[in-house]
Write a structure and sequence with these properties.
This protein is α+β, with helices and mostly antiparallel strands and 187 residues long. The longest helix has 45 residues. The termini are far apart. The mean pLDDT is 79.
């Protein structure tokens, strides 16, 4: 009597063992020589797209982080410009621009950003000022909101030409602009 797979013989079940042979996968069909390199070829075709996708995600996160830091720095500087400090003397245009520059480039600011590449523009009812990239001071009016009309507002723009860290062909350089706008609280 021949033994068949799964046949009971005196209370015992005989199940044939499947050896793990490299030429005979678990599915049971033997691989031919032309199929053996197919998975390596498929991996080689998919890898560049996967690397570009991961690089794009890293770059987007980097740029998004910088944009959030620039928006926060511009809002903080604009808020400082429209409120009168307890000492009684209002902020000058140069002080507001310096505050925006420091907030966007120092610890807690945007990743990989230095003062050399960041330009600050302040506009107010009494005029405005621009702190060029790399400079440490800006001219402009001594008081931004004093004598302004009832609808006067101060706008601070932090502008930076950003280069993402991962070399993705479609993201070479991006200009990021963070803006903050507040209505003057004192006249």
């Amino acid at each position: 009597m021949s033994r068949l797979p799964g046949f009971r013989d005196a209370g015992r079940v005989h199940i044939p063992s499947r050896g793990s042979s490299p030429s005979r996968p678990v599915g049971g069909r033997a691989r031919t020589r032309s199929e053996r390199g197919a998975s390596a070829l498929e991996f080689a075709l998919v890898l560049p797209m996967l690397v570009a996708l991961v690089g794009g995600i890293i770059d987007f996160g980097f740029l998004f982080s910088q944009q959030i830091a620039f928006n926060t720095a511009a809002r903080d500087a604009a808020r400082t410009a429209v409120t009168k400090p307890l000492t009684g003397s209002p902020q000058t245009c140069s002080n507001v621009a310096t505050r925006a520059r420091n907030a966007s480039t120092q610890a807690g600011g945007a990743l990989g950003v230095g003062p050399a590449g960041t330009r600050i523009e302040v506009t107010a009812p009494n005029g405005g000022c621009t702190m060029a990239a790399g400079s440490t001071s800006a001219g402009g009016p001594a008081q931004l909101c004093t004598g302004s009309s009832s609808d006067g507002s101060v706008t601070v723009a932090v502008i930076h030409e950003s280069t993402p860290p991962f070399p993705v062909p479609f993201l070479n350089s991006v200009t990021l602009t963070g803006r903050g706008n507040f209505v003057c609280e004192y006249r």
